[in-house]
Design brief:
The protein is of the alpha/beta class. It has two domains: about 170 residues, Rossmann fold, CATH 3.40.50.10940; about 290 residues, Alpha-Beta Barrel (L-fucose Isomerase, Chain A, domain 3), CATH 3.20.14. Helix content is about 40%, strand content about 25%. The chain is built from 15 helices and 18 strands. It has a six-stranded antiparallel barrel. A five-stranded parallel sheet has the order 2-1-3-4-5, sandwiched between helices. Strands 7-6-8-9 form a four-stranded parallel sheet. A hairpin with a 4-residue loop joins strand 14 and strand 15. The chain is elongated. The two termini are about 30 Å apart. The relative contact order is 0.10. Keywords: Carbohydrate metabolism, Isomerase.
Length: about 475
Amino acid sequence: MSKQALSIGIIIGNRDFFPDSLVEKARTEIIDVFAKMNIKPILLETSDTKLGGVETYKDSQKCAELFKKHSEELSGILVLLPNFGDERGVADTLKLANLNVPVLIQAYPDELSKMNVVNRRDSWCGKISVCNNLYQYGIKYSLTSNHVSFPTDAEFQKDLLDFLAVCRVVKGLKNIRIGAIGARPGAFNTVRFSEKILQRNGITVVTADLSEILGKAEKLTKDDASVKQHIEAINAYAPKGKTPDAAMIQMAKLDVVLKEYVEEYQLDATAIQCWTSLQQNYGCNVCTSMSIMSENMLPSACEVDVTGTLSMYAMQLASGSPSALVDWNNNYANDPEKCVLFHCGNWAKSFLPDIEISNAPILGTSVGVENTYGALDGRTPAMPLTYGRISTDDPKGIIKAYFGEGELTDDPLNTFGNRAVAKINNLQGLMNHVCRNGFEHHVVMNASKTGAILEEALGNYMGWEIYNHKG
């Protein structure tokens, strides 16, 4: 996923009393950088305007028409300022194109040995003017780490990679389709959400009755070719441990139907009623199927946590790697900056090097352990951590979220299920924010450092209320 090439439009700003050679060289440089980074550039030819730059209103019209022609594939726009640039030219292009995609503003640095008329850029000043105009026009934009930088600089290329991730998140969330399979567990008011608020933000929820899924699964037999194929796939995914063959067949049948449902409704993610009807009326857990989907970048959350799986999808888009839904579950001894993350468990295989299909002991106390096979057992080792949560705040009529970064550790943890130890600076302050702002006990973890990307994508471009916990 992270290796997929994105198309980015390029606006090269220019002003006629600055050296043309600066624009010409910038065009060549950025094309080379894009080629090395596997990015498809969409930009004017040198025959379309003076050196392919944008300065006059006619230039803006030509560039905007080019962008509109490629609107289906364009994920974002890079504004390149090899000199001061014409702020109106940049703003008019974006206004006329009306793409509503992320915009990154770059500006070249001047060199002390080249401050003469032939080489002077004044891009430092020009960037401020461009941003001022975009602000006036109501166009949202992103900034580089340093105010000025060369496209060939490692720092700028890191900025560009982060910008691509922002583009993936924004584009991916605009038309996401989430399957809500079954009713939320009656005891879990915490996972309630507003479909209407989500829909206003381009997020569609497709509902299905759990009985329809289970009914179709029950009609399948162990002799059906599709069931045999899914048993093989499950065995290849994780060791079965002590899971009985009968439970493996039930899991495979359910897996067949879920796959068909996802394909029929073209879903990007699912949230499933994982207890207790499934165990009582069907006789297994759906955790393994959910883990397989999440590992294959089709995130699946338990307890019909729709905004939980939305959080998984957003973090997956930001990092290019699977996410997992977890509980903020336990303190870790007396350490105020560590806690235990847990679920019973459906985490993607990427988090579980010692993965094994097992049962769910806690759930088994009420529905019978024999009916809970399909849960996964495994410990997540030390790795980077980005955590976070998206939620609808129905009284306010908004979408809000929090994110932050930390570490998963190898600290001893003698328990069962899917489990991890997290270290987060000022964890007590974070828990205070979670509790005071009515967030759910579910949080999402991702093996990355993408908090700033999520803040930019969801706060700046989606317009959601964001808290980024800096610790």
